[in-house]
Design goal:
Number of strands: 3
Shape: globular
Strand order of the largest sheet: 1-3-2
Number of helices: 2
Helix content: 25-40%
Radius of gyration: 11 Å
Largest sheet: 3 strands, antiparallel
Structural class: alpha+beta
Order of helices and strands: EHEEH
Distance between the termini: 27 Å
Length: 56
């Protein structure tokens, strides 16, 4: 997969919403190399896009 096929989340509330409310499992959870901010990497899908819209 290329980076365009991933959706990166730096908002902990959104990551938890996607995982625990919508059942979408992240591909990777890590820290940004420069800022050390945690992020979650999700595979792009229509289900993910719809869930992000629901979160807004």
């Amino acid at each position: 997969m290329t980076t365009h096929q991933y959706f990166y989340v730096y908002d902990k509330r959104l990551a938890k919403f996607l995982r625990y409310k919508k059942g979408i499992v992240w591909e990777c959870h890590a820290l940004h190399a420069k800022t050390q901010a945690p992020f979650w990497q999700f595979a792009q899908s229509q289900e993910l896009r719809d869930a992000v819209e629901d979160f807004k």
